Amino acid sequence: MSASNFPACLKITLGQEGGYSINRADPGNWTGGKVGKGQLKGTLNGIAASSHPDLDIKNLSEAQVASIYEVEYWRPIRGNDLPAGVDLSTFDFAVNSGISRGAKALQKAAGVTADGRIGPATIAAVVAKSPVAMVTAINDTRLGFLQGLTNWKTFGKGWGARVGTVRAKSLLMAGATAAVLHQAAAADEKKADNDAKSAGASVTAGASTGGGAVIANHAGGIDWIALGALGIAAIIIIGCGFILYRRAAARREMADATRLIAVAS
């Protein structure tokens, strides 16, 4: 619970956000927030022209970047009042998905009303909990939220690696040993195996449903309505299977990221 942990947390988060980019197709790189609207200034360390149209994005100094993150994210999530590790997990979630999301994940883990407003009651509940348990719960909530997004199929593996990295480094900050990290990675692998097994069963069931979709009506013809319904059902079942496959892949990315940090710690 010290302001001195902000630089360490910021360094980890900036390592996930990347450097300077100026993709014309990215609305965030335009000062107007839409492609072709305003000036094309780009994004640096996650700081986008759409959110800071008056800044010279490309030439932001390290001090400016740090100030923006401290004012816009660290202070709102009460980073200085959170235990080490819990601060990093909450901070990185807030940066990646919004302050309210990060705050609510923190509150859910602490067992208080998740209203997104971190006050004295939230802080008191947080410090009464095990920081290792808090870190684990926050990142489980984070992964669950990300899995529900429509672009999960595109970015899921990368998000899994980010959550795994942040969780592992947060656990170390919270005082966990390398053995705890290995246990977390093993739990990820088990969940991934279960998802992959369920995915295989879904795909097989879907294919079977679609393959057997030839239904004769009482006149000896084909019931096209029933046939169509079975086809739709097969597509849904197979689609669920592929979702589970992607979740399994993301869990494995989490496990890999966690083990790398455990070995290096």
Please provide a written account of the structure.
- The protein has helices spanning 5-17, 62-74, 86-97, 99-110, 120-127, 131-147, 152-173, 178-211, 224-264; strands at residues 20-21, 43-44, 47-48.
- The protein has 265 residues and is an all-alpha fold.
- The protein folds into two domains: 1-75, no CATH class; 131-264, no CATH class.
- Helix 3 packs antiparallel against helix 4 (99-110).
- The longest helix is centred in the last third of the chain and has 41 residues, at 224-264.
- It is globular and about 50 Å long.
- Mean pLDDT is 86; it is low at 209-227 and 233-239.
Features:
single chain, 265 residues, mainly alpha, 2 domains, three-stranded antiparallel β-sheet, 9 helices, transmembrane helix, transmembrane, Lysozyme-like_dom_sf, Peptidoglycan-bd_3
Total of DSSP H or I helical runs spanning 4+ residues: 9
Would you tell me the structural class of the helices and strands?
A: mainly alpha
Percentage of β-strand residues: under 5%
Number of strands: 3
Oligomer: single chain
Number of domains: 2
The major beta sheet can be summarized as: 3 strands, antiparallel
The low-pLDDT segments are 209-227, 233-239
Order of helices and strands: HEEEHHHHHHHH
How are the strands of the biggest sheet laid out side by side?
A: 1-2-3
Q: Which descriptor suits the 3D outline?
A: globular
Rg, alpha carbons = 23 Å
Percent of residues in helices comes to 55-70%
